[in-house]
Amino acid sequence: MTISERITQDVTAAMKAREQHRLSTLRMVKSAIKNKEIDKRAPLDDQEAMAILNTLIKQRKDSIEQFTKGGRKELADKEAAEIVIIEGYLPKAAGAEEIAAVVRAAISEMGSPTMKDMGAVMKNAMTRFAAAGARVDGKVVSETVKRLLSGG
């Protein structure tokens, strides 16, 4: 079953269970996927759907940051709850140890890169995560690459 099909099923289940917040979040996700399908003029595969879900999560994280700065905790909490719902459709995110291991492998494969080679190391590491189907936050990978390249 594709991600889109799972979301459609869960929209129906949320309607029956009268879970308003879950229902509105899933409808928003479904419409984002549908808009992309219209742009592409074809159904999305799971990789493309996951890219959209990652984008939505990133938007929510940015919103949380802004709401927290503005002192709007209730809105930040609502966005955090939406992230939890959306993440349920994605593979489990890679942990810090797993990220560090992949970055170390990328660095050792490249010889002895310096900070100037950070972009190449990032590209190599992100390609490895994509090939493994793992979900990672690019910001965390970037910080790990910086730390390991600077001898940390």
Structure, described:
The structure is a single chain. With about 150 residues, the chain is mostly helical. It folds into two domains: about 5-85, Hypothetical Protein Yqey, Chain: A, domain1, CATH 1.10.1510; about 95-150, Orthogonal Bundle (Arc Repressor Mutant, subunit A), CATH 1.10.10. The chain is built from seven helices and no strands. The protein has helices at about 5-15, 20-40, 45-70, 75-85, 95-110, 120-130, 140-150. Helix 1 runs antiparallel to helix 2 (about 20-40) and helix 6 crosses helix 7. The radius of gyration is 18 Å and the shape is globular. The mean pLDDT is about 90.
What is the strand and helix layout of this fold?
Elements: H1 3-17, H2 20-40, H3 46-69, H4 73-87, H5 96-109, H6 118-132, H7 138-149
Helix pairs in contact: 1-2, 2-3, 3-4, 5-6, 5-7, 6-7
Question: In summary, what is this structure?
Answer:
This protein has 152 residues and is mainly α. The protein folds into two domains: 3-87, Uncharacterised protein YqeY/AIM41, N-terminal domain (Hypothetical Protein Yqey, Chain: A, domain1), CATH 1.10.1510; 96-149, Arc Repressor Mutant, subunit A (Orthogonal Bundle), CATH 1.10.10. It has helices spanning 3-17, 20-40, 46-69, 73-87, 96-109, 118-132, 138-149.
* Helicity, as a percent range: over 70%
Structural class: mainly alpha
Tell me the overall shape: globular
Q: In the CATH scheme, what's the topology name of the largest domain?
A: Hypothetical Protein Yqey, Chain: A, domain1
Q: CATH homologous superfamily of the largest domain - what is it?
A: Uncharacterised protein YqeY/AIM41, N-terminal domain
